Amino acid sequence: MLKIENLSVAYGPRLILKGISLEVNSGEVVALIGPNGAGKTTVVRAVSGVIPVKSGAVRTNGDSLLLLPPMQRARSLAVVPQAVSMPPAYSVWETVLMGRTPYLNFLGHTSAKDEAIVRQALEKVDALDLAERRVGELSGGEQQRVLLARALAQSTPILVLDEPTAHLDLQHQVDLMNTVRTLAHTDNLAVLIALHDLNLAAGYADQVVLLVNGEIRAKGTPKEVLTPEVISAAYHLEVQVVPHPFSDAPLVLPGRKE
Fold it and tell me: How far apart are CA 9 and CA 53, in angstroms?
């Protein structure tokens, strides 16, 4: 389980996150939603230790993640960052193998076990056929699958993703979200994912957390959070929420501004 307790982050005098608390259980997908500037990416960076926190704690099974040495933390939590640039000359296999870094000895030698884990990670994201390709030759959707495979190769119980569907077409958005949900439910991962698209959150998350101005305004199931009243107030836009025609999820329809 990932547990965020009263977490606050400041950039200079400006408070970006204001005492937020949430939990992500094993086998669960929790979506962070909110308007631009709400603090979603800041949560991802703070939880992964990329930026310092002003106060609060991030724990897994009672251990403070932020106090762990980087290599030990990398065995507990893997991150799929937003729009990251990967070395274009590296092969996909070499790139995903980087996910095994926290487990290598000081000489950096890989074992048969490491190779098997990389192969399995590529298979899980349907990218094994890309293994020999150079990263610079891949499409945006293919690169996103490679980033997810690299995170899976870390063999961590917690997976954190920052806007993984950004710049992907509809098919690749659906493919990636299906993969993430399957990984959570089948491999018992605790998944925290920051999303702009409310309908992706509705369709694939078990729980939704709404951030506005660095504060949690609502959290619960998609049906509990994605209501016209809550979403309209957060986004300053009139919306309708109707039943999805193909599932039990709510469907958010924005109105037009006159």
Answer: 5
